[in-house]
C-alpha cells in the first residue's frame, strides 16, 4: 500500500514552491518512491497529484541548474577558442601564405626571397591579395581553435579527476596528453577545411573562386578521397605540436605562479609564454608540416606523392634535408610564436572577460 504525506504536511508545499526547496532531500526520495511504485495511484488524489507535479518541476529545474556551470564552461571555451584562432591567424596570414608557397615548391627559401614574393604579390594583385585564402583559413581555424581549446579544457578536467588533481595543475605526462588529445580531436573534425585552405593559398584566383568551388572541383576531378590526402602526416604532426604547445604554455604559467605568487600573468607575460610554446611545438613537428602541404597540393603542382616516407624521400633527394624538410622554418620562427602567443593570450583574456560578465550579471539580479 502506497502511503502519502498528510494534507497538513502537503499544504504549505502546494502553496509555495520555495518550501519544497527547503525539504528537497525528503521529498525527492518520496518522488522516487512514487516512480518505483507507479503513478496510477497518485492520479486518484488531486492534492497529491499537484504536489507530484511541483516536485517533478523542481527536480527537473535542479538537474538543469546543476548542468549550467559545466555547459557555460563549454560554451565559454568554444567562444574564446574561436576568437583566439581568428585573431591569431588573421594577424599572420600574409606570412603564413608565403610560407605555404615555399613549402610546396622547389624554390630555395630565404628571408630576401620571401620579402620579394610578398612585394611582387602586392604589386600584382593588391594589398588584400596577401590575405588570399584567409576566408578558407577562418572557416577552418574558427571551428578548429574552438574545438581544440574546448577539448583541452575538458581533457584537463577529465584527466584531473582521474589522477586526483581536479582544479589543480596537472602533472607533466597528463598535461602533455591533454594537449595532444585536444589537437588530434580538432584535426580529425576539421581536416578537409585545411586541405581547401592550402589549395586556395597556392593557386591563382582564376582556378578557385571560393571555398565551395574548391570542394566541388576537387570532388569532381580528383575524388572525395583527395580531401583527406595528407591526413596521416597531419595527425602525426599535431600530436607533438599541440602536446608540446599546451604543455609548454601550462608549465610556464605554473612556474610563474609559483615564483611570483600571482595566479594570473600579465598580458605581455602570456604573450611570451605563448611564443615559447609556439617555437617549441612548431620546431618539433615542422618536417611533417612540409610533407602534409606537399601531399595536399600535389594535384595542382604536378607532383605525385603517395606515402609519407615516399614524400620525404623525394623531397630530400631533390632539395636536401635542411633545405627541403625545414624549408621556411626561419619564417615559422617569426610567424609561429606570434600566432601562438596571440592565440593563447586571447583565449585566456576572453575566458576571464566572460567569467567577469557572468558574475556581473549574477550580481545584478
Care to describe what's here?
The structure is a single chain. The protein is built from 15 helices and no strands. The relative contact order is 0.10. The protein has helices at residues 7-15, 17-22, 24-37, 46-91, 93-103, 111-125, 134-163, 172-202, 211-221, 231-260, 267-296, 298-301, 308-319, 321-325, 329-363. With 365 residues, the protein is mainly alpha-helical. Helices cover 79% and strands 0% of the residues. The radius of gyration is 28 Å and the shape is globular.
Descriptive tags:
single chain, globular
Question: How is this structure best summarized?
Answer:
By secondary structure, the chain is mainly α. It has helices spanning 7-15, 17-22, 24-37, 46-91, 93-103, 111-125, 134-163, 172-202, 211-221, 231-260, 267-296, 298-301, 308-319, 321-325, 329-363. α8 (172-202) crosses α10, α11 packs across α13 and α11 packs across α15.
